[in-house]
Give the backbone structure.
Amino acid sequence: MKPRLVLGSRGSQLALAQIRLVQEALLRAHPGLAIEVKTITTSGDRRQDIGAGEGSSAGLKGLFTKEIQDALLEGSIDAAIHSLKDLPGITPPALGLAALLPRADTSDLLISALHANLDSLPPGARVGTGSVRRRRQLRWLRPGLDVIELRGNVPTRLQKLTAPSLDAIVLARAGLDRLGYSISDARLDCDAGSFHAAPLAILPAIGQGAIGIETRRDDPSTNAILSSIDHLPTHTCIRVERELLRLLDGDCRLPVGARATLDDSGLLQADAIVFRDAAASPAQAHASGPASDPEAVGLGLFNQL
C-alpha cells in the first residue's frame, strides 16, 4: 500500500468539508493511512462573476475542475475530490472515477424569510439563484416569478435574504448539510436569521449531492485503496446521469436536470428534463433498466429527449 495518499481539492469552505468526509471514509477503511491534502485554485475560484455553490450555471463546469485534473495528470496529487455536479461529462481519457461516497440529499431548497414554499410566493416575487437550470424550471413551474441572478458563497446568499428586495433564494440541500446548517421542521436557522426551507419539485443537476474521487487509470495502488470506499449504488446511479451528460456533449450547455435512483428490486429509474429554448416548454424523459447496464438507461433518456 502507498505510504501516503495526496488528495487535491478546491479550497472553498464546502470543498474542504467534502474532503474531510473522504478522509474519514479512508481512515475507517485503512487505519493509519497517511493522507495529505493540497488545495488548488481553479479558474472558477478566480472568477467572481460566476457561482461557486452546488448547481452552478450550465456550460461552466470545467472551470471548477481543470486545474485539479491537470495536477492529477502531472502526478502532483494522487486523487482529485470533486463535487460531481462540477465535473464535465467528457474528461481526459487517462482519468476515471475510482470511487464515490454515498450520495447526499439531491433536493434544491427554496429559502425565504416570509414565504413557506413555492406556491405561497406572490406573482412577481424575486427569487435569486446562480443556476440556469433552476431559473428555467422555476419560471416553467411558476410563470410570472422574477428569477434573478444571484452569486456568492452560501453565507453571502443567505445574508441577502434580509434585504426587502429579495423574496427567496434557492440552494442545494447537500451543500447546506455539509456546511453544518441546521434544517429542521421546514426551517433553516443560521447567523443571518431563521428562514423557511422547502424542497422544490425540480430535477437536480447531474451528479448533484455526490462526491466523486478521480484518479489516473494507470495508478493501480491508489485505485485499490479507493475501491474500498466506493459506494456501489451511488456509483451505479451516477453512471446513468453522466452517460446522459456525455451524450449531451459533455459540458451541458443546455439547462438540464436529471436524477437516477435504484429501487429495492435492483431496477434503475431515471428522469430528465432539458430546456432547449427559454420560450419553449422543456423536453422530459423517463427510463428504467437493470443496474447491470446503467449506460443503457442513460442512453434511453437521451433518445427520448
Summary: The mean pLDDT is 91. The longest strand covers residues 267-274. The CA atoms of residues 159 and 192 lie 5 Å apart. The two ends are 45 Å apart (CA to CA).
